[in-house]
Amino acid sequence: METIPADNESADPRRLSLAAWAESVGIARTLRRLAPAAEWALLALLAAYFAIKGLVVGWQSLNTDFPNYYLVAKLFRQGYPLDRVYDWTWIQRQKDHAGIDRPLVGYVPLTLFSALLVSPLVALGPLDAKRVWLVLNVAMLGGTIWLLRRLTEMPLRRIGLLVFLTVIPLRTNFLYGQQHLLILFLLSLAAWLDAQGRLFASGTAVAAAAALKIYPAFFVLYFIRKRRWRALGGFAAAGAGLLALGLALFGYEAMRVYLVQILPRTLRAECNDPFTVTFGSATTLLRRLLVGEPILNPDPLVHWPGLYVWLQPLIEAAVLVPGLWMLTPGRAAPRRESLEWAGFTALLLALSVGSATYHFCVLILPTVIAVGVLLEARRTRDAFLLVVLHLVVCSPTAQFFPLHPGGWKTFLGFPRLAALACYWIFLMLRLLWRRPVASASPPIWSGPARPDGSRAAPSELWAFGALFGVLVAIGVAGNRRHFAHQFDDYPARLETGPASFVTAAPSVGTLGGPWVYFSRMEAQGFVVARTGPRLTVEAPPNADVFAPAIDQRRGVGWLEIASPSRTQSAIARFALGASIVPAQMLPIDVDDGEQPVLSSDGDHLGFLRPERGRGQLYLVERVRDDSAAAPVVAGAWGAPRAVTSAPADVLEVGFLPDDGLILSAFRDGRARLFESDAGAGRFVELALSPHPVRFPAVSPDGAWLAYSEEEAGAWHLWVAKRAARVDVASWSRHRVAEGDCNTMSPVWLADSRTVIYASDCGRGLGHTVLCQRRIVP
Predict the structure, then answer these.
(1) Which residues are CB-neighbours of 321 under 8 A, at least 6 positions away?
(2) Beta partners for residue 769, in sequence order
(3) DSSP assigned state of 573
(4) What's the longest Cα–Cα distance across the chain?
(5) 699: CB partners within 8 A, 6+ apart
(6) How distant, in Å, are the alpha carbons of 110, 191, 367, 377, 729 from that of 154?
(7) Checking phi first, is residue 568 left (phi over 0); if not, alpha (psi -120 to 50) or beta?
(8) SS3 677
(9) Is 99 exposed, middle or buried (0-12, 13-18, 19+ CB in 10 A)?
(10) Read out DSSP for 37-76?
């Protein structure tokens, strides 16, 4: 049944006479002859701009995001544990060791399959690998244009115009070496296969796209509503195959970490800063209006998380359920089938919890399909309006609006969201058009008309009403659980200087303080800083410094330096009395070591030496010089000694008050805690929990153990009363921090009652800040 009627020019005599006059004087014929040449000229200009500003610049420079894919692909080829690639500090360290000369990298929220695509290229250098990837992207762009030509009746020049009118997203995709063009190609392929009746293959193509980005997976709802059971079967079969492939290639733990820890926070728009207007979405807008955060969102319209809990699922259900209802069950007329695929693709972009400009490469697909349908139906004005909306969505409008708006001005920070909402509403209105039903009036209980002109049964209305209620109920319940205790840490936060992405690895010094030393990720990489009197240890360009360890009695500290010029980290010494310290000027005490920790008496230094990303424990002892008037600092350490009795694959290590060791290590599929005697001759596992446990810290008086335990995908801070002997498996313990967020890396103050720890509660995943809390009465 036809659903997009053509414009009826005979209904308006003025339009008819104007058209007749234009035709009589030859204007219309002249314009028709010139139009193709003008379109080709505009296409050439847009393509030239894209080539110069996108392809050429991307060819010459290595920008994010390609280094993220490349680095993890390289780690995969070298046999590194990929469950740690979502740790901001760990992946930054590997970037330095791999010689990638970029300030920052990060792999949240990318899937492991994104790196798998790039793995054949890691034999090349990063820039050369990116150039090969760009050539493949050019081929995918050409393949997409060919598919769109097969899907529509538009001439090639007009398809090219619509493609290159999306020049800003395309330019950014090539500049950064991203994978959004591949998603566009796969979804275009799926649409073409669907139109050809090859439904199983169509579902397979969608599953391949969903393995790289999450939102194509929601095409499952489209297949169910459209009764595309073979497409659903293709999606399920390909999804199962990809899951099996991921388990075989990446391992169970890496897949578990993504599915349990990363994916849930990603779906809540918490993979990065959840308040940034860069990833403008309805979820981000609501959070910025209704949820305060002391650093990232200090000026919300009102801090009312309870209202957010209800509004967010209501808005999502109000978009999704009508969008599904407007789809025709089963096959419809070809024009309507095309428009429905376009509308559902736009629906998924509108529902996305976080999308920057470059994500809208995929908008090419619904725009080309919808414009083709509208032009075929001679609805030229509607096609023009849709192109205008497309341009607004894809343009960099954010630069003209506040970057950190507060209060009512928050609405000004989301112009693209408003344009995208208008774009989707426009397509939904086109789907609502229908020809009048020729039959007599239906019985009163037969239900209202569907978008295709048929009548909806009451059972269908009840079903969609129930779906709406279920989605809202699930969303509200999930939001309530997620926001419970999210804000408990706000009063406990420490002042750590300028706003940063990540503040972590606390270490406490007591002289004149206590002051807290920590690592801080800034735009140019990691530095080491402290609370109290200013101290900043700055890394060389594109290098990083991590993990301070403090010896207040000698007035010195140690830290890890990782640089692209070295394949290994080094442990350097710095003076605590300085204010700004260039790391490249510091003396190196250990040439190959990471994550230094110091014993309470300052006579033992522990560190890790990794083997393919798996930490091996080493110790060095201070060389005493009793004849010296002052403690010898330079050259005061002996030769490093491997602790062969320690478990393999050590994650973190700390000292006990008696110079014994406590550490976390990965063994038999999960992280566990181990403790040794003073000589580190024997390590015994601490039977605390069947769940993964990490980040151990023993109080200075030796009575308490603080650590983090993974529960339902989040790391929660716990404290336990230590048993009299390390081999006693009875512990008195309780959870310190609640909330669906991470609290980890505790360090004790001298009173053995208070801890400093890192928390990402109320923030993005892994974007931790430091908090101080008394946890022992």
Answers:
(1) 464, 467, 468, 471
(2) 759
(3) E
(4) 111
(5) 705, 706, 748, 752, 753, 776
(6) 35, 16, 12, 12, 73
(7) beta
(8) coil
(9) middle
(10) HHHHHHHHHHHHHHIIIIIIHHHH---TTHHHHHHHHHHH
CA 355 to each of CA 14, 145, 242, 584: distance values in angstroms, whole numbers, following the listed order: 45, 23, 25, 39
> Which distant-in-sequence residues (6+ apart) come within 8 Å of 21 by Cβ?
none
CA 467, 472, 473: angle at the middle one, nearest 5? 95
**Strand, coil or helix: 256:** helix
Residue 501 in any domain: the answer is: yes
Beta-bridged to residue 557, according to DSSP, are 550, 574
* Cβ pair 540, 526 in contact under 8 A: no
Strand partners, 663: 653, 674
Range of the domain at 584: 488-598
Give the residue with greater pLDDT, 96 vs 331.
96
Q: Mean pLDDT across the chain, nearest whole number?
A: 87
What distance in Å separates the CA atoms of residue 197 and residue 230, rounded to the nearest whole number? 10
Q: What are the structure tokens assigned to 175, written together? A: 């500049």
Burial 144-156 (b: 16+ CB within 10 A, else e): bbebbbebbebee
Q: Which residue type, as a one-letter code, is found at position 456?
A: A
Instruction: Fill in the amino acid letter for 74.
Output: K
Q: What is the DSSP letter of 596?
A: E
Q: 502 and 523 in contact (C-beta within 8 Å)?
A: no
Q: Is 618 exposed, middle or buried (0-12, 13-18, 19+ CB in 10 A)?
A: buried
Whether residue 110 is contained in a domain is answered as no
In angstroms, rounded to a whole number, what is the distance separating the alpha carbons of residues 234 and 172?
A: 32
Three-state secondary structure call for residue 471: helix
Query: How far apart are the C-alpha atoms of 665 and 649, rounded to whole Å?
Result: 6
Contact 593, 570 (CB under 8 A): yes
Preceding omega of 514 cis (within 30 degrees of 0): yes
HSE, side-chain direction, 13 A CA sphere, residue 510: 9
Q: How far apart are CA 237 and CA 235, in angstroms?
A: 6
Number of domains in the chain: 1
- Mean pLDDT throughout 692-720? 94
**CA 76/CA 99 separation, integer angstroms:** 16
Q: Mind listing the pLDDT tens digit for each residue in 504-555?
A: 999 988 665 678 999 999 988 999 999 988 889 999 888 999 999 998 788 8
449 three-class SS: strand
Tokens of 461: 């209305």
pLDDT for residue 728:
47
Q: Which of 184, 169, 160, 182 is nearest to 46 (CA)?
A: 160
- Residues facing residue 597 across a β-bridge: 606
Q: Is there a domain that residue 455 lies in?
A: no
Length of the chain: 777
In 3D, which of 300, 298, 321, 330 has the Cα closest to residue 223? 330
**Distance between CA atoms of residues 740 and 760, nearest Å:** 10
> What CA–CA distance (Å, rounded) separates 194 from 153?
17
When pLDDT is cut at 50, 70 and 90, the band that residue 334 belongs to is: confident
Backbone angles phi, psi at 505, to 5 degrees: 55, 55
Q: How far is it, in rounded angstroms, from Cα 371 to Cα 378? A: 10
Is residue 536 within 8 A of residue 579, CB to CB? The reply is: yes
**Cα separation of the two ends of the chain:** 74
CA distances to 517, 555, 576 from 512, rounded to whole Å, are: 13, 11, 11
Query: DSSP string covering 384-433, please?
Result: HHHHHHHHHHHS-GGGGS-SS--GGGGGGG-HHHHHHHHHHHHHHHHHH-
Between CA 341 and CA 187 the distance in angstroms is 10
Asked whether residue 522 is domain-assigned, the answer is yes
Region 629-654 average pLDDT: 78
Contact 475, 317 (CB under 8 A): yes
What distance in Å separates the CA atoms of residue 67 and residue 752, rounded to the nearest whole number? 43
